[in-house]
Amino acid sequence: MDWAALHGGGRRRRVPLPTYPFERARYWVDARVPRAAAAEPPAEAAAPRRAPRPAVMTDYVAPAGDLQLKVAEVWEELLGIEGIGAYDDFLELGGHSLLGIRLLGRLREHFRIELAPDALYTAPTVAEMAALIEAVLLAEIEALSDDELLELT
Q: How large a percentage of the chain has pLDDT more than 70?
């Protein structure tokens, strides 16, 4: 390729392009606090600011029950959105595959269960995810022996 003939001796410039198509905003999960700031008591314990619920195709329905509330809380924390409803879709709220992996990891830690990697695609709403978690927990309880059940109680 004859680059000199292509550009005709003209000046070229570099155009910056976005590195990732879903890169809208950056959220720090565990920000490190400098030692001097950690020694001082905080003036006010402020919760991280969350964006309002975006316009989605489903109407807001409040999560019902403790399980749905906890799942919605984890979604709100990771997505940075306030007021996620029971039937809001993870992908429609701006979730993507990498965030989905982190979400499943948090749910595994909290409920101490194993979720399949495709769980978010088979249960994309808070209500469906809570039902899936409940089914996994019930299956684990049913698999316990009588002695193991007595130890738990």
A: 80
pTM comes to 0.64
Phi, psi of 17 (to 5 degrees): -115, 150
**Domain 3-152 CATH assignment equals 1.10.10.10:** no
The predicted pLDDT at position 37 comes to 53
| Domain extents in the chain | 3-152
Would you say residue 127 has pLDDT above 60? yes
Specify whether the CB–CB gap between 69 and 85 falls below 8 A: no
